[in-house]
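WP5 quarterly update. Target: ComF family protein. Source organism: Streptomyces nondiastaticus. Length: 250 aa.
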Amino acid sequence: MRGWWQEIAGLVLPGECAGCGAPRSVLCEVCRAALGGGGAWRVRPDPEPAGLPPVHAAARYEGPVRSALLAHKERGALGLAGPLGAALAGAVRSAASCPEGGRRGGGGALEAGERPLLLVPVPSARRAVAARGHDAGRRLALGAARALRAGGLSVAVAAVLRQCRAVADQAGLGARQRRANVAGALGVRMGTERLLVREGPVVLVDDLMTTGSSLAEAARAVSLAGGRVLGAAVVAASGVPPLAAEKNRN
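Structure tokens (predicted):
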């Protein structure tokens, strides 16, 4: 019910930019440009957790990008799913175009013509989804899929991951604590293994990467079920030092 009212409110109430507060705009042009106007980046957390696939981000988690992501995820500004999904789509394209494993000098999935891509969102805890009134990660994955299809790419969203056990809130935890917190926490939903094996390569998607622990755990679960993880894409990356980010110019 809460999600339904949020949808209606986003359509009929006058808004302000979630990034900078400018009137009469869900997200102004300046803040949209901050969401990937410069292209996607290959990002590497430091330390990099074992099993982390190549991760591409549309933006850094700061300023208007941070404000927009928080407004969508925590405050139910569902009108932001479009521009945030479009930014995520750019990161997916970057991940899928990059040579497998992040190596230069070879073709990625898009160049090789492998289709469709499976976008697999990293799941949030059920209690968090219930408290927010919407599944932010899945909504962004669907927004990215729409943008990618509009550009002629065959993609599907496969929400195949589930939490196998409760995990603590990751906020405030260090890299080592986060790895321990999520280790073995994810699995695939019963009956979805065949989908992962039969369909195209997987790009894991999430709104934010901090230490990479959740993405590494998601990659482990998908790979264990027989899926081929090509890479991961996020709207934004947090705490990534300049030397740990590489602009994808492919």
